[in-house]
Amino acid sequence: MRIDIISLFPEMFEGPFGQSIIKRAREKEILDIQITNFREFAYDKHRQVDDAPFGGGSGMVLKPEPLFRAVKYIKENTKYSNRKVILLCPSGKTFTQKKAKELASFEQLIFICGHYEGFDGRVADSLADEAISIGDYVLTGGELPAMVITDAVSRMLPGVLGSAESAPTDSFYDGLLEFPQYTRPREYHDMVVPDILLSGNHAKIQAWRRRQALEMTFRQRPDLLAQAELTEEEKIFIEDLQAQAVKK
Fold it and tell me: Which domains does the chain have, with CATH numbers?
């Protein structure tokens, strides 16, 4: 996959993208990340990328021309047909694990990072394929959301993680939170690892983990259960948890 990020502050990405899993994915050439400073596509004397909003108001608005030119340049210099242009802004749809899996199916993603009071409306209407937000809060720019989404999407790509089983067991991958994990030592401060995990019975371990994921989701994020695919037995298990909660 190739990811292009259009930003006024390319230096912000050097640390996060030069470490850990994303660094290894880039070294393996599974992931190609390129940063473009769209100030380079402002052709006036002062390389201006923003201006005062029509109709008045505080702050400055990003001009359309540099962004349209930057996206056009990237498209003309890459040969991907299966790609998407994404605007990162607070008014976009909330990013989820489901969206991460969807975006991982594209050959190329082009992220547009905003600043100031936002974008000229024509950027959202005619340049971007969709707008995405990472939460109901406002950041100083789209760089951090671009890092977050790149990290989440890259985990979905074959070969990025050390084990092919890692991503499917992540929280939210199948609509539930992840089950608790344990490692050595077996006992610590009178806290003992559940015996089932040491039994060697993989079927029972999987069943235990599934129930733990259901219980964790019920207690921490019950809203997720409405979207999860549950068996009849699991639905009964949730009903029992609800009954116990009412008694308490």
Answer: 2-154 (3.40.1280.10), 171-247 (1.10.1270.20)
